Known about the structure:
The chain is α/β, with parallel strands linked by helices. 30% of the residues lie in helices and 33% in strands. It has helices at 13-21, 29-48, 84-93, 142-151, 169-178, 208-213, and strands spanning 2-5, 53-59, 64-70, 74-79, 98-108, 114-122, 130-134, 137-138, 159-163, 166-168, 184-188, 190-192, 194-195, 201-202. It has a seven-stranded mixed beta sheet, sandwiched between helices. Helix 1 runs antiparallel to helix 2 and helix 2 (29-48) crosses helix 3 (84-93).
Amino acid sequence: MKVINLGETNSVLNDYIAQMRDKNIQKDRLRFRTNLERLGHIFGYELSKTLNYSKKSVTTPLGTAEINTPDDKIVVATILRAGLPLHKGILDVFDNAENAFIAAYRKYDKGDSFHINVEYATAPDIEGKILILADTMLATGSSIEITYNYLCKDGKPKHTHLVCPVASVFAVEYLQKTLPKDEITLWTAALDEELTSHSYIVPGLGDAGDLAYGKKL
Length: 217
């Protein structure tokens, strides 16, 4: 699995990540969601450079222009609910993409142990297409792993791009061991070293779903 950390290069992306991490600024839910959408735009643009292109003729009011445009069919998928603003940002870039939505969450057992429960999923055919699977936080890697395998039950994508703005080193190493090496690219903007006993990323940014949409019961 190839890992691309856009946060290693100085750009305005780092300012958006800083605002999302800031415990005072992140109280503004609209700002938090907007920053996630902005990240989606940036990831989508950078990711677009990896697609397959061919030259096509476009008729203008004055003549004909030859332009290289992408050929790949794209499916943008997200894990509810924290990934929704990020999903929208990516979809703004790939506005003709098909979409998939998966409700996968931590279902706690005894103590601090938990398993990932998938209760809802809707997806188009992904066979031979570019799959972009977006989730704001990549803590243990379990949700992404289970969601990827779930989506691939009925078809194999041509290539999968995981878009996870904030990721833990643990999760990256875990996915490198469990997911296909040559068929997946992970895009991130921040790699954090620590996970708590409850599997929360440190320094991280908190609960992205709550920050975007409010606390849940």
